[in-house]
């Protein structure tokens, strides 16, 4: 899952947030969803930082 493109991970995050909203009365399921969403968030954040670094390199050329 972590090898997905930024866009695929972003769509998955949106889906997980919808699932979280639907399961707000089920704490166990909510925690599972939250854990998966947190992993995807970390992956997205790393990719954004990589993109920022690449843009800085391009801008400095």
Automatic annotation (TrEMBL):
Superkingdom assignment: Bacteria
Keywords from the UniProt entry: Coiled coil, Cytoplasm, Exonuclease, Hydrolase, Nuclease
GO cellular component: exodeoxyribonuclease VII complex
GO biological process: DNA catabolic process
Entry's Gene Ontology molecular function annotations: exodeoxyribonuclease VII activity
The protein's Enzyme Commission number: 3.1.11.6
Top EC class of this enzyme: hydrolase
Coiled coil: 3-61
Pfam families named among the record's database cross-references: Exonuc_VII_S
Membership in a protein family: Belongs to the XseB family.
Name of the protein: Exodeoxyribonuclease VII small subunit
Organism listed in the record: Anaerococcus hydrogenalis DSM 7454
């Amino acid at each position: 899952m972590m090898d997905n493109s930024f866009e695929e991970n972003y769509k998955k995050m949106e889906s997980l947030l919808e699932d979280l909203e639907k399961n707000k009365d089920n704490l166990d399921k909510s925690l599972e969803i939250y854990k998966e969403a947190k992993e995807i968030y970390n992956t997205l954040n790393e990719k954004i930082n990589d993109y920022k670094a690449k843009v800085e390199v391009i801008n400095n050329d």
